[in-house]
Amino acid sequence: EEYPWLVQIFTWADQGVPSDEIARRLTREGVPTKTGKESWPPNSVNGILDNPFYKGELIWGRQQVLRDENGKPYLDRRAEDDPGRVTRQSPLGAIIDVELWERVHSRRLAARGQRKAN
Q1: pLDDT digits 0-9 by tens, 29-40
Q2: Which of 57, 80, 114, 117 stands the most exposed, by the fewest C-beta atoms within 10 Å?
Q3: Closest by alpha carbon to 102, among 47, 49, 29, 61?
Q4: Tens digits of residue pLDDT in 98-115
Q5: Measuring CA to CA, how many Å separate 85 from each of 4, 24, 63, 82?
Q6: CB proximity list for 74: less than 8 A, separation 6 or greater
Q7: In angstroms, rounded to a whole number, what is the distance separating the alpha carbons of residues 1 and 67?
């Protein structure tokens, strides 16, 4: 029952609908979140749109725990070519069409670049 909404989320994003508007639409339609909440935060939508799992990839080790000069731990993002980062194909395969996922991902990366430039 979640699949049609997942496809709808990616379709809206592909049409250029911002994640906060997608969250409002899902809330208005009464679609529950994964945890059963009635209201969708935009960060939940962002998490779905940015997750390569939906195009059939499983990734481990995206972040690593490092320590600052005082010994306090913090998370640091690993580079794509870091040997501690492991990517495998999901045995489930792609849930969302890979071309759709890539289009949405490219659009989102370009928008992030524009916001940073502004």
Answers
A1: 999 998 889 899
A2: 117
A3: 49
A4: 999 999 999 998 887 665
A5: 31, 34, 8, 6
A6: 65, 66, 67, 68
A7: 43
